[in-house]
Amino acid sequence: MNIKFLTKQIRKSCRLPMAFFVILFLFFTLQSKASHFRYGNISWTRSNTTPTSVTFKVSQAWRSTYYFASASAPTVGSVINGGVLNFGDGGTAKINLVITSINVADDWFYGEFTVAHSFPSSSTDYSANFSSSARIGTLQNNGKSNFQYLL
Fold first, then answer.
1. Is the Cβ–Cβ distance between 29 and 127 less than 8 Å?
2. Which of these, 85, 96, 97, 138, has the minimum number of CB atoms within 10 Å of its CB?
3. Neighbouring C-beta atoms of residue 146, cutoff 10 Å
4. Is the CA virtual torsion 86, 113, 110, 81 positive or negative?
5. pTM of the entire structure?
6. Integer CA distances (angstroms), 110 to 4, 80, 137, in order
């Protein structure tokens, strides 16, 4: 029997199973979700002097050990990236969350971020929002799922 022919046949027969495992691997890695988001809220106030200017306050709570090596690592006053706030008019702001409270025993921290934004028009409805994919994994309703909170 010809060795070249045999080697070619083995390579051909391995292609399909190899492709299957690569696709399976990619599917499961793309579907993995985290569980570090604990709480979120967006509130706003309109400027008394400029009707198109709004100040947003974003409040969030996260699992400490997602951002830090241990639950006791965060400190009040630390700033972390809490994602991106979408203003609803195409504008965005990086959420520089200032940690204001820490619960070491339950492995979470809470922080707040405030930002002013001017909208192009006061006669249009806008919907500010934040979204991610890190809901608590043990929730009975959509654990480890995507979420969005909006105004």
1. no
2. 138
3. 11
4. positive
5. 0.68
6. 65, 11, 19
